Write the structure tokens for this entry.
Amino acid sequence: MTDLHQTEAFNLTARAAEHVLKTMERDGSGGQGLRVAVVTGGCSGYEYALSFTKTPKPDDLVIEIDSLRVFVEADSVDKLAGTVLDYIDGLYGGGLKFTNPQAVHTCGCGTSFSTE
């Protein structure tokens, strides 16, 4: 697996892909894909929504990274353009981190953002 799987719409590091695959295996979701969307919410206006699903919706952007399939919701592609999803180690176990160049403001906890 390369360090970064890069597309114009969405980027995923090898560490993030590995973490997602391990989580899917642990949760009994193996063989499914990671669905990524931006939804209205949070203190800054938008927040990221991640879920596991077996099949993409017809208009989803589908990205294949080795054995991981990522389904980016069509309505979210513009808000996610250039975004990198990474896995960061932390004192309390770490977690997934979005770095989104479309975000002009993020909340203090980093889970929501706003765009222009």
Remarks:
- The radius of gyration is 14 Å.
- The helical segments are 14-26, 77-80.
